[in-house]
Structure formats: structure tokens, C-alpha cells
Write the C-alpha cells for this entry.
Amino acid sequence: MALLDVPVLTGARELPRAAAEFRIVEADAGALRRYRALRREVFVAEQGIFGADDADRVDDDARAIALVALGPEGELLGGVRLAPALPGRDLGWWTGSRLVVARHARGAAGIGAALVRAACARALEEGVLRFEATVQPQNERLFLALGWVRWGEAEVEGVRHLRMRWPIDRVQRLVDGSKAWLAELLEPYSAWSDSSPASLGGAGFVGDDGAPVPGTDVIAACDAILPALIERDPEWAGWCAVLVNVNDLAAMGAAPVGLMNAVGARTASAARRMMNGLRAGSQAWGIPVLGGHTQLGVAPALSVTALGRTADPVPGGGGRYGDALALTTDLTGGWRSGFGRGQWDSTSARSAADLRHLGGLVAEARPHAAKDVSMAGVVGTTGMLAESSGFGAVLDVERIPAPDGAAMGDWLTCFPGFGMLTADRPGRARIDSPIAVSAEVGSLTAERGVRLRWPDGITTTALTGAATGLGRA
């Protein structure tokens, strides 16, 4: 494999001097010129790493970001840049490079360390999932102290360098906060061990999106909406209460037949706003609200139970070793206003016919396993499907369909509106839709957890083990 051109990231050499005040900002045009001049002064004239200039393709990349440290009078004390590792599509793999500190500012002021920390923070803001640098050996200690890990070596202009990676645990934290406590709370193998065999979904469906009702062809699903979402946008909360339940039924190949709701609100007007969203959703998907319960004078709360029918439900844990994982998503729409980059809205502008078409894709395709992409995002949902199937998974980042303008780290950890993950034999991803994009994006493996595979063949760990602890369905 050819060595990737990952730029040099180097730091201080001189003895510590007195600390100085400084601030770190994104470089404007003037500061950028001074930063590049400082780089030539250090990397060309002082260290002799490069010939006449240290400029490279990253300097010409419009996505590159330069952060600079400025002194009290605006003087340039140092800088660093970060940018996507590869030209073309931004996959969430970025590198930091050209860390430099002016000779007179090196030492106790900690400018180099501060610039590295700032670059890491900015990488997170840009939705990065893999952030690396290639550094001179004498700077390894600095990077290790800042939490980086060494993972290899490389040569830059004939000089030995170390490859360092800053661990990003964004996916792990998301899953730990939303799913990892399920086994401890439910105790499926202790507190529920002497209960009905149909409890918690029953054999083959434990931890699934819905639950088969014993002795019938009915599937029941239930979801509650976060109180913060209700407070922020009651109508949208009502819409989402229908959306997430319809997705749960769709993942099991069930046709929806009715909804029940439980609404809690401080005032009648607040409850009415939630009900407006519920009504809009029920009309869009053609599912009647059969009834429910409403209470006023309480903290906001909203949960919906959906009922669907299928004689042969598709399990979330039906994946087999070596199955290909396919992701089917509706890439239209955009980030939902007011929710940062946590919710992608691909449904509110869709016609009723489009929404019902999407809801029937799994029923028509009948893969081995299916799960709708939930609040745990694409990677977390992959972890749940793999875990309930008894395996782990690897995802090829380059193959994952994503909307233009959505950073990969944000896309893989958001609620995407409509997203369906399926497992089937390689080459048999049977979902085909004129309004959604479907692609094989990975496979089920013997190694537990979820790993991300990058274009250079390197894999990084996104989830270290089980997503829920509930085990094989």
C-alpha cells in the first residue's frame, strides 16, 4: 500500500521561557500570510526539512482551516492547520499539520499544546471521526500528554516521523448514553427469566423495534419523545411520535393499522399543539389515532403505541455471519432548525404516497434482518443489529450514502428521518426505491463491536463491544 501524504506536524525545540498571553483564532487572510511565512522560517530555514517552500496541496484546499495564536498586540506566535485527509468527498477523516511556534514564543507559554487542543476541538465541530497527524519523534511526548496515541511511522522528505491519532469517542458516548444501560435496567436473564416466553419481544425478537403479540399477526411498537423536544417544538414532537413508530413497524415488515397516544402537558394549548403534530402525521401515513390518554397540569410528555400487522415479521437480530449490511436512506431535506445537527428532516416535505412507499420497503424486500436508524445513529444501530444477531460489524465509510453538506460524523450519529439498515447475503441488497438511496456499506463479522474501515484500509473502533448488553435476540 502506498504511503499516504500526511503532512508534518511539529513543535517546539528550545528551552522554556516566560509565559505570554495569547489567544487562538481562525486565521483571516492577513494572519494566514503571516502563518505561512512563519512556517517557511521554521521548516525551511531553521529545520531544513523542506527546500524552498513547505507549501503543498492542503494549502490549496478550500476546506483547510488555519488556527493561529496571537499575542496581546496581535503579533503571530504560532499556528496549525487542519483539513480533510483526501481530496474530494469529506469522509470525516482529517489531518492536523504544520504546527509551528515562533522561536521567541516557545516554552512555558504552552502555545504548541494550546494549538493542538484547539485543532482537536475544531475537528469535533467539523464532524470528524478520524483525526491524525504525522509528527517528529521529539514531539511524541507532547502529543501523548494531550491524549493522542501512536499507531505507526512514516517518512516526510526523508525524515522519520511518527503517526499519531487523537481518539474520538463520539459514537461510543452516544450509544453509552442512549442504549448501553438497557441490559442493566431490563435484566432479561434474571428478573425476567421466569416470565412469559413472549416477554421483551420473545425469542428471536428481544431488543427488536417492535414485539409480536402472541397468537396473532399483530406487531406492537411504542416510543416516547424526549421532553426537551416537546418543549422546543410541540408540533414537530407530535409528527416525530408518528414517524419513529411507523419506522419501527416498517423495519419489521409490518403494515401500520392504528395509533394510541398518551399526552401530558401543562396547558390545554400545549397539548393541542402536540395533537396537531400527531394528527398531521396520522393523516400523512394514513394511520388512524384510535384513542389514548391526556393529562393537563403536568410536565410535558408524549408517547405513542403503534399497531401493525404481518404474518412473518423481519427480525432485527436475523443477520448471519458474513451478511452484507445495506443502508437505505432518504437524502432529501436538511437539518431540522433548532436541533443543531442531531436531526435530519427528510419527511416533513414528502408526500403521503412517498412516506407510505418508504414504509413498505422492508416488507417487499424481506432481508434476513432490518432495523430502522434510531437515535443511536447509523453506527449505533449497526451495533444493535450486529449484537442481536450474535456478531460484530465493519462499515466502509466511503460507501455510506450521505447528503451533500452533512459532515460524516454528524450524519452517522444523527436521527436521519428515514434510514433503514438491513442484512442479507452479499450482492442481495434487495431494497430498491426511486426516492431513497440504498448501498451495501459493510458486513457482519466475528469481531464484536463496530469498526469503521477507511479508504487506506485502516480500521478504527467506533464501538468497543455490545451496544445494549441484551445479547443475541
Remarks:
- Residues 1-19 have pLDDT under 50 and may be disordered.
